[in-house]
Amino acid sequence: MNAPRIGPSDSALVAAVARLGRQAKAAATMVRNASPEQRTAGLNAMAAALEAHAETILSANEQDVAQARTEGLKEAFIDRLALSPERLRGVVGAVREAAASPDPVGTVLADWTRPNGLRIQRVRTPLGVIGVIFESRPNVAADAAALCLRAGNASILRGGSDSARSTAAIVAACRQGLAAAGLPQDVAQVVPHTDRAAVGMMLQGLEGAIDVIVPRGGRSLVQRVQEEARVPVFAHLEGLCHTYLHASADPTKALAITLNAKMRRVSVCGATETLLIDRSAAEVLLPPIARALQDKGCALRGGPEAVRLFPMAAATAEDWRTEYLAPILSIQIVDGIEEAMAHIAFYGSGHTDAIVAEDPAAIEAFLNTVDSAIVIANASTQFADGGEFGFGGEIGIATGKMHARGPVGAEQLTTFKYKLLGSGQIRP
Amino acid sequence: MNAPRIGPSDSALVAAVARLGRQAKAAATMVRNASPEQRTAGLNAMAAALEAHAETILSANEQDVAQARTEGLKEAFIDRLALSPERLRGVVGAVREAAASPDPVGTVLADWTRPNGLRIQRVRTPLGVIGVIFESRPNVAADAAALCLRAGNASILRGGSDSARSTAAIVAACRQGLAAAGLPQDVAQVVPHTDRAAVGMMLQGLEGAIDVIVPRGGRSLVQRVQEEARVPVFAHLEGLCHTYLHASADPTKALAITLNAKMRRVSVCGATETLLIDRSAAEVLLPPIARALQDKGCALRGGPEAVRLFPMAAATAEDWRTEYLAPILSIQIVDGIEEAMAHIAFYGSGHTDAIVAEDPAAIEAFLNTVDSAIVIANASTQFADGGEFGFGGEIGIATGKMHARGPVGAEQLTTFKYKLLGSGQIRP
Fold first, then answer.
1. What's the ipTM?
2. Nearest CA to CA, how far is B406 from chain A (Å)?
3. Strand (E) or helix (H) holding B154
4. Which end of chain B is more exposed for a tag (fewer CB within 10 A), N or C?
C-alpha cells in the first residue's frame, strides 16, 4: 500500500502499469458501447469459465494457503484466504446473479420537453474504469469484475500478495469467459502482485485512466487509500453504528432488534457498536436486553447511569468512538431524542443508525435529522447490505456524500449524460 | 489562488478561516433541517434585502470599479465587475427565481418494499457546505448563495480581490435577509479578500467542513482548483465543443445551427469550436456555411480538404485542441460518423457535442457513443446551459463524471440517503 517514489530504474514497471490503464480505457469504451445482452452474455461466460477452471483455481488457492501457513499467518487470515469447492460455487453464483440483474446502462432517469420543443433525456452511462484494491479474500476479484461489467465498466484489480495465485487464476478464468463472449479480455485486468509501487500508481489514477477507486478491506487499507488517492474513492472508513431505543419503543422489538443488530455477526460494518436508551424507559428496557446480550457472550460497557441500572463495566470516553467489530457493546442513557441525535452526530461515522420507537413523530424526526447514509426505524442495523437492499450484489458501502452513498451496487457504478433531441432549434 | 504554506505567524488567519468552516457546518445542519417553506422564505428575504440595500451595493461597486480603473485594468474586466441598477435587478430576479423553483430536499427518488416487509426509500438530502471560488463578477455571490440555500446547503464564498467591496456588500445584504427570515446568517459567509492563504485552506476543505468546491471563472482558476483541491470539485476546464454535419444533414438546419453554435456568443463554454463535415456532403454543405460565418466576422481555419473547398487559412495541429472563445472556427472534413466520433473522443473536452443529421441511425449512434456530459441532435451547442434545461439557475457546468455532470443546478447540489421503515425486522 505504500506509494514509493518511482525512479528511473522503475521505468519498465511504470510502462507496464500505465499500459494496464490504457488497455482498460480501450476496453471500457468497447464494453460501454456493447449491448446489455452482450454484457449479460459476458457475465454468464465468466461464470461458466470459473466453473470450468475450478480445479486450477482451487489448486492455486491451495498453494497460497500453504505458503500462508508456512509464513505463520493467523487462522482468521487463512479462513478469509481459503477457497473450497463450496465457496467457489458461491463465487460463481454471485457472477450469475449479476448476469440476472438488470443492466443499468441506458436507463432514462428523466425525460422532459422544453417550451421550444427541445426534448431532454438524462440517461445512465458507465463510469469507465474502476480500480479495485482488496486484501486477502480472492473472491472479491470475481465479485468486483462482475459488478463492474454489469454497469458497463472495465476493472483493474489489485489483490493482496498472499492471495496472488488465487486472484490470478480467478481473473484468468474471467478473461477467458469474456473472450468467449466476444468482449475484450481487458474488461478485467489484474495488477501483478509483485509491483508494490503499482498501488501508488493506481491511487494517482494511472494518467487519467481510472475514474474511481474502491478499496475492499480493513481500516488501514481504506485510510491509506482515502489519504493518498487523487481520484474519487467509494468507501467507508468505519461503521460506528448506533441503535437508539426511544421511550415509545416496543420492548419486545427493542430486545430482538438490539440482539440482532449487535450479535448476528459482530464483524460486519453494519453491526451496532453503541446502544442509546431514553432515560424514561431505561429501567424497563435495559435490564432484560443487557441480560440477553451477556447470555450470548457480549461484554457491556456502560455510562454512569447504565452501570447503575445493570452491573457492567464502566465505559471510558474512548468507547463512544470505538468500532469494536467484536462482541462488545457500549451503552449510554440519554435525555430524549435530541440528545440521542447529538450523540450520533458527534460520535457516529455516517454509516447506519437506527431508532426503535412506536411514536411516529419520533421516527420522522430521527429519519429526517440523522445525516447518515442509512437511517432505520424498527429494524436491525445489520440490514446495511446491498443484497438486503435488493441491489443484486454490492462492491461495498460508501459513507461519502459524493455520487455513491450507502451500498454500492451496479447502479452506483454508473454516471449519466444528457441527450438533447432537437429539430433545428437555435438559441435566441 | 496560490496556496502558500501556513506558518506559525498565520495562526490568527488559520483560526479565523477555520471558524468560517465550523460556522458553515453548524448553519448547514440548521438549514438542512429547516422546512422547504423556511428556505423559500429565506430566499425571498434575501431578494428583498438586496433590493433594500441596492444603494449601498452600487456605491461599493463604484469604489471597486474606480480602483480597477486606477489600476489600469482592461475594459472587458471592468465590464464583468461593474453593476448597474439593471444588473442588480437581474441579480434580485435570479434569487427570486431560486425561491420560486422546487425545493429538492426530501424528494423521494425511489421507494420499494423488500419481501420481508422492510420499506426502503431513497431520499434527496443536502450536500452540506459548498465552497464557491469566483473571480470578478460580484453577482456570482448572490447567485451561488441562493442556489446553495435552495438545495439546503450553506455556502462559503470567496470572490476576487478586485470585487471585494461589491461582494462584501452583496453578502451582507443576503445575511440580513437570512436573519429576517429566521435562518442562521452563516448560511452565506464571505472569506475576507485580503487572506490569500484562505483559498488554499478552502481547497484543503477547512478541516472537513467543505463538501465540494465550485470554481467560477477562467481556465487558470479552474485548473488550479482542480490540481490543488483535496475535496471534490464541480467544474469544467474547457468547453471544446464540436458540431458534426452528417451526410444526411438538412442543409438549412445545418446552416442555422452552425451559425448559432459558433456565433451567438463566442465566449460561452457551449460555443462550438470545431466543425466536422462528412466528406460526401462537404461540397454542398461547406461553402454556404463558410460564407455566412465569414460574413458575420468569423475567421476560418480548415484542414487540407476544407481549404480546397473554400478559401480559408490552414489549420495547424494545435487548432483541433484549442478552445478559442473567439470568432474563430476550425473545420475538418471527416470520412463518416466513426471518424467524426473518433475526432471528438480524441480532441474533445467531454462538455457538449452535437450532430446535425436526418438519419435516425446516425443520430442514435452519435448520442449513445459520444461520452460527453451533453450530446445534442439537431440543435445548437449553445443550449448547454442550466437555464435552457429548465433548472432554474445553475452554478456552472461540470464535465467530471462524479455526482454532478452537465449543468449544476439545485438538484445537483444534493446527495441522498436511504430510509428503512421496519416493523421489527431482524436479519436472518
1. 0.93
2. 7
3. strand B154-158
4. C
Question: Is the domain of A178 the same as that of A270?
Answer: no
Which amino acid, one-letter code, is at B324? Y
- B308 close contact with A: CB closer than 8 A: no
Q: Do B423 and A378 touch (CB under 8 A)?
A: yes
- Residue B22, number of CB atoms within 10 A of its CB: 13
Give me the residues of B, 355-384, that contact A with CB < 8 A: 363, 367-369, 371-380, 382-383
The answer to whether B346 contacts chain A (CB < 8 Å) is no
B152 and B218 together in one domain: yes
Instruction: Please indicate, yes or no, whether residues A195 and A136 belong to a single structural domain of this protein.
Output: yes
> Across the interface, which of A120, A257, A367 has its CB nearest the CB of B389?
A120
Contact B424, A378 (CB under 8 A): yes
A98 and A393 Cβ atoms separated by less than 8 Å: yes
Q: What is the CATH number of the domain that holds A271?
A: 3.40.309.10
8 A C-beta contact, residue A344 and residue A375:
no
The answer to whether the CB atoms of B422 and A376 lie below 8 A apart is: yes
Residue B117 lies in a domain: yes
Owning domain of residue B204? 8-234+409-418
- Averaged pLDDT for residues A108-116: 96
Residue with cell 452554478: B395
Alpha helices in B164-240 (DSSP H): 164-180, 196-203, 219-228
- How would you label A58-70 residue by residue, b for 16+ Cβ within 10 Å and e otherwise? bebbeebbeebee
The reply to whether A277 and A220 lie within a common domain is: no
- Return the DSSP state at B4: P
Q: Does B338 touch chain A (CB under 8 A)?
A: no
Q: What are the tens digits of pLDDT across the range B249-280?
A: 999 999 999 999 999 999 999 999 999 999 99
Dist. CA A235–CA A216, nearest whole Å: 8
CA atoms of B21 and A36, how far apart (whole Å): 45
Spatial distance between the Cα atoms of B385 and A114, rounded to a whole number of angstroms: 13
| Structural domain contains residue A3 | no
The DSSP element (H or E) to which A278 belongs, if any, is strand A272-278
Residue A426: inside a domain: no
Same domain (yes/no): A47, A192: yes
Taking the whole predicted model, whether its pTM rises above 0.90 is answered as yes
Nearest to A232 among B256, B389, B402 (CB): B402
Give B195's Cβ-side CA count (13 Å radius): 22
Per-residue cell: B138: 460580484
Show residues of chain A in contact with B120, CB under 8 Å. 389-390
Specify the number of domains making up chain B.
2
Return the closest-CA partner of residue A388 out of A212, A244, A256, A264.
A264
A232 part of contact set with chain B, CB < 8 Å: yes
CATH assignment of the domain containing B156? 3.40.605.10
Q: Does B57 share its domain with B82?
A: yes
pLDDT tens across B91-135, in order? 999 999 999 999 999 999 999 999 999 999 999 999 999 999 998
- Smallest Cβ–Cβ distance between A422 and the set B33, B379, B418 belongs to B379
In one letter, which amino acid is B104?
Answer: P
Q: In terms of residues, how long is chain B? A: 428
Query: Quick one: A220 exposed, middle or buried, by C-beta within 10 A (0-12, 13-18, 19+)?
Result: exposed
In a domain, B2, yes or no: no
Question: Are the Cβ atoms of A418 and B424 closer than 8 angstroms?
Answer: no
**Residue A186 sits in the same domain as residue A332:** no
A chain contacts of residue B423, beta-carbon cutoff 8 Å: 253, 378-379
Residues forming a β-bridge with A379: B425
Chain-chain contact of A127 with B427 (C-beta, under 8 angstroms): no
Whether A269 and A217 map to the same domain: the answer is no
Q: Which of B289, B371, B374 to mutate to test the interface with A (most CBs of A within 10 A)?
A: B371
